[in-house]
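Researcher: Go.
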Amino acid sequence: MSEQSDIAELSKENRKVYDASRKSGASHRFALMCALQQAPASRTDSDYFRKHPSLAKQFEGRAGQADLTYRLKQAKAHGYTPNPNSYYDASLADFAGDPKAWIGPSEGRGKVEAVMEARKVKAAKRAEQKAKEPTGRKRLAPDIVAQCAEVAIAKNPDLARKSKREITDMMVEQHGRKY
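Model: Structure:
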């Protein structure tokens, strides 16, 4: 937020306190804190974990337990055993159960920031890579081709006389990706 938008949101009484603080030499942020009678938000690890539940709370319910079991199995397969008080942040994971995504109570925000910084470097390298050109081949799953062909033949019985290859090509042309 800018200084003007911060000040515009103040009530008349809070604005008087803000103006008095500024006249006495206080910075904008300190005067705003005095006017609102509210300290700035802290950024400690305990605040971080207050907002992020432990694994038991994070993966509640039957589906959650199955998901947790799968992620724990994947983490252990990659040589990492998470603490029950850890937090799993899927946005940090490259794959389900990625050891980088488990944030332990002793690691907190520092680990999150380190992983995000490393990811930014990876993202920059990916951005430099050239995109693959489309192959020109249009693909369509065989079961979808079969369903589309069945509907098309029901609408136009003359199509049944065509070869399977011709019908497949027609279905892919009509329903496949358009480049």
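Model: The mean pLDDT is 82.
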